[in-house]
């Protein structure tokens, strides 16, 4: 049954149509713009994360960094991908020194007194002199070292493969854990690595650069070369190596950078 | 008589206005990152014409010492930039709107005539549909540039995982230069685009928000009654 009271809907005039559509679209646009601005303001002013293993990044941005890493890890990454290598002639003669954090010890550092310390379960510490590492199979790599700042340089490093090192010292059980932590002897610089990156076939405990012993400013006597990560993860002057299932502390992750910083 | 003429689809307007703030944030956060290794300049025969960027520029925009922050913003908003772009491209293909957008064989010749007309050198411009030949080239180029930014971006973001993209871009070093150059391209596009929009006037601008333009059509002769059905459409 028809409702008799209902007014017959008059068709809108062209002017009314124009006004109505303008009103709706411009209002929607204004609301969208205000929302976008508010959203941006919220994000830009969002507080930093609670300082822990990672720190100094806006909380939502840190979550995004971690989620993005997980996304790529699950869907795209293949940890067996090798870093591109180059002929030795292409390696730079002047290897760039970019930082000395962890190397500016108060008392003079003498590489002769140095021993690599591997922290095992129950507080047992494995002490390894550099001569022992030099006696292990040597691996060389010439690759494009990439700094998080944006520069890159083809460099020639040599040392013992981290995976060879694990095998030789029968640390295989430790390599089943999720992370490796490395620190300088003065604890001034420290990095955390996910195990696949540490066990990557191109990851070296390096003692030579351009066929010569690593100089002090490059981390004598032993430094980390992990080509699948940015330079910030390539710790100089390794003092201790430890293993864990939680993320070890990481110098730059505490300063707003991505924990993984992988390439 | 005034008539409503549909011009821009809702999807196109959405993508356009979503892209604008996202691209702004990407360029800004990109500069926070670039600052950490700001080595590019335009130097010809030993004379530096432009240095990217001078100190006053950095300080005016508050750019120095914010690399970590820049990376965090860049690697979040890259998702929105890419997804919005994918959505736009898919929409343009599926809806058939690409026909109004992609340059035709004649567009490259015509674009020159459009340019001469815009510079007031020529009186007439070639006939056009929604976009003129120069617009077709510019609006298609900006999409290709967007794809280029994503590819060069991934090539420098994960050069080991996406080694094939890095190879495609001619290596890590060149990929970073291309990524930067594309950004300069956006800025150039933006300047020309805004000048053109101002010159085209309010009616044109408002159609990118409302979707339609009001045009005056000659009233139809009243005597014509034969094709009533046709007229009703």
How would you concisely characterize the structure shown here?
The complex is a heterodimer of chains A (263) and B (233). Chain A is an alpha+beta fold.
Strand order, sheet with most strands of chain A:
2-1-10-5-6
Mean pLDDT of chain B: 89
User: CATH homologous superfamily of chain A - what is it?
Assistant: Oxidoreductase, molybdopterin-binding domain
The name of the CATH architecture of chain A is: Alpha-Beta Complex
Largest sheet of chain B: 2 strands, antiparallel
Beta strands of chain B, count:
4
Helix and strand sequence of chain B: EHEEHHHHHHHHEH
Question: Helix segment count of chain B?
Answer: 10
What kind of oligomer do you see? Answer: heterodimer
CATH fold assignment of chain B: Fumarate Reductase Cytochrome B subunit
Largest sheet of chain A: 5 strands, mixed
* Helix share bin of chain B: 55-70%
Which stretches of chain B of 5+ consecutive residues score pLDDT under 50? none
Q: Could you give the topology of this structure?
A:
The complex is a heterodimer of chains A (263) and B (233).
Chain A: H1 14-44, H2 59-75, E1 116-119, E2 125-128, H3 130-134, E3 139-146, E4 152-161, H4 162-168, E5 179-183, E6 190-194, H5 195-198, E7 204-209, E8 212-213, E9 223-225, E10 240-244
Chain B: E1 2-6, H1 10-34, E2 41-44, E3 47-51, H2 55-61, H3 67-95, H4 98-101, H5 107-118, H6 133-157, H7 163-168, H8 172-200, H9 202-210, E4 212-216, H10 228-232
Antiparallel strand pairs in B: 1-4, 2-3
């Amino acid at each position: 049954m028809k409702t008799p009271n209902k007014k017959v809907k008059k068709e809108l005039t062209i002017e009314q149509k124009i006004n109505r559509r303008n009103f709706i679209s411009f209002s929607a646009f204004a609301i969208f713009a205000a929302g976008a601005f508010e959203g941006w303001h919220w994000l830009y002013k969002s507080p930093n994360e609670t300082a822990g293993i990672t720190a100094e990044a806006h909380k939502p941005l840190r979550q995004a960094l971690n989620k993005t890493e997980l996304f790529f890890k699950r869907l795209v990454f293949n940890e067996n991908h090798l870093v591109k290598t180059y002929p030795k002639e292409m390696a730079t003669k002047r290897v760039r020194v970019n930082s000395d954090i962890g190397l500016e010890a108060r008392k003079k550092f003498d590489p002769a007194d140095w021993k690599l310390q591997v922290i095992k379960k129950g507080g047992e510490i494995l002490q390894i002199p550099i001569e022992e590492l030099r006696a292990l199979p040597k691996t060389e790599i010439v690759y494009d070292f990439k700094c998080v700042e944006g520069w890159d340089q083809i460099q020639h490093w040599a040392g013992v493969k981290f995976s060879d090192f694990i095998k030789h010292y029968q640390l295989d059980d430790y390599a089943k854990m999720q992370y490796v932590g490395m620190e300088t002897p003065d604890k001034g610089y420290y990095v955390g690595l996910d195990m696949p990156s540490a066990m990557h076939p191109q990851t070296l405990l390096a003692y030579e650069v351009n066929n010569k012993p690593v100089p002090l400013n490059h981390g004598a006597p032993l430094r980390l070369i992990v080509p699948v990560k940015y330079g910030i993860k390539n710790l100089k002057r390794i003092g201790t190596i430890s293993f864990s299932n939680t993320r070890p502390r990481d110098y730059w992750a505490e300063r707003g950078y991505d924990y993984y910083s992988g390439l | 008589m005034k008539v409503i003429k549909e011009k821009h689809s809702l999807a196109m307007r959405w993508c356009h206005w979503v892209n604008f703030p996202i691209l702004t944030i990407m360029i800004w956060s990109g500069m926070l990152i670039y600052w950490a290794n700001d080595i590019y300049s335009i130097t010809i025969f030993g004379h530096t014409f432009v240095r990217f960027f001078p100190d006053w520029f950095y300080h005016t925009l508050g750019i120095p010492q914010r690399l970590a922050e820049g990376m965090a913003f860049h690697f979040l908003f890259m998702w929105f930039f890419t997804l919005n772009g994918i959505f736009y491209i898919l929409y343009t293909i599926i809806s058939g709107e690409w026909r109004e957008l992609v340059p035709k064989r004649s567009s490259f010749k015509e674009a020159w005539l459009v340019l001469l007309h815009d510079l007031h050198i020529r009186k007439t411009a070639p006939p056009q549909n929604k976009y003129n030949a120069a617009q077709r080239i510019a609006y298609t180029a900006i999409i290709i540039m967007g794809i280029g930014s994503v590819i060069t971006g991934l090539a420098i973001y994960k050069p080991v995982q996406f080694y094939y993209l890095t190879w495609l871009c001619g290596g890590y070093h060149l990929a970073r230069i291309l990524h930067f150059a594309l950004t300069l391209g956006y800025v150039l596009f933006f300047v020309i685009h805004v000048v053109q929009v101002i010159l085209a006037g309010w009616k044109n601008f408002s159609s990118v928000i409302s979707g339609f333009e009001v045009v005056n059509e000659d009233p139809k002769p009243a005597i014509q009654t034969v094709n009533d059905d046709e007229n009703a459409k």
